[in-house]
Amino acid sequence: QALSLPIVVIVHGNQDNNAKATVLWDNAFSEIDRVPFVVAERVPWEKMCDTLNLKFMAEVQTTKGLLKEHYFFLAQKIFNDHSASFEDFQTRSVSWAQFNKEILPGRGFTFWQWFDGVLDLTKRCLKSYWSDRLIVGFISKQYVCKLLSTQPDGTFLLRFSDSELGGVTIAHVIRGQDGSSQVENIQPFSAKDLSIRSLGDRIRDLGQLRNLYPSTPKDQAFGSHYNSEWLAAG
């Protein structure tokens, strides 16, 4: 007899997401000489970060992996803790329940279901944007407000939606005549939306967007992603 790679049998497509979570956890965290089917219930967060990074790069097929600030955001999400420091999270361990059993606060999905939605969207529609580092992606709405509130009118950045599975949204600052600022988040775009009209062309269409944070003119940042037919016409 020989141990195979982990296999999960499903009877319906809606079980696919949970099956992928089981296989990922087993592949990443089981010991080589373990008793069959015995897998750790908790793993160090640092090890989870490595696993998520490898999964992201392999799935999206990019050489641009997750950054320290991305890990910090993901830790805040999975542990539901916005007061701990980056170093605090490095000493914690994460459970299978936190990974793919417990529903995220105020949402209808687990951490893995959310992350897998981001993976699928990036793989299908955002690979080149991510590889060009045009998408911050893993960042909270609160931190986006902090970054953009001091910026000139029309400064924007892109983040993965917290409220929808597989969505990317554009946050931009609007500065009033009195100098006050307001940060608005455009309704998230899904893979279906972006298959109809690309992200680059949508950004070009939105006149209120001027500079990609911190200060790159949008045509300079996204020009290579605009539809070639439009460029020829222009």
Topology:
Blueprint: H1 16-29, E1 42-44, H2 45-60, H3 68-79, H4 86-90, E2 93-95, H5 96-100, H6 111-131, H7 141-148, E3 155-160, E4 168-175, E5 181-185, H8 191-196, H9 199-205, E6 211-212, E7 216-217, H10 218-222, H11 228-233
What does this 3D model show about the protein?
There is one protein chain. This protein is α+β, with helices and mostly antiparallel strands. It has a single domain (41-225), classed as SH2 domain (SHC Adaptor Protein, 2-Layer Sandwich), CATH 3.30.505.10. It has 11 helices and 7 strands. The strands form 2 sheets. It has a 5-stranded mixed β-sheet with strand order 5-4-3-6-7. β3 (155-160) and β4 (168-175) form a beta hairpin. The protein is globular and about 65 Å long. 27% of the residues are buried. Mean pLDDT is 85; it is low at 230-234.
Core attributes:
single chain, 234 residues, alpha+beta, SHC Adaptor Protein, five-stranded mixed beta sheet, two-stranded antiparallel ribbon, 11 helices, 7 strands, 45% helix, disordered C terminus
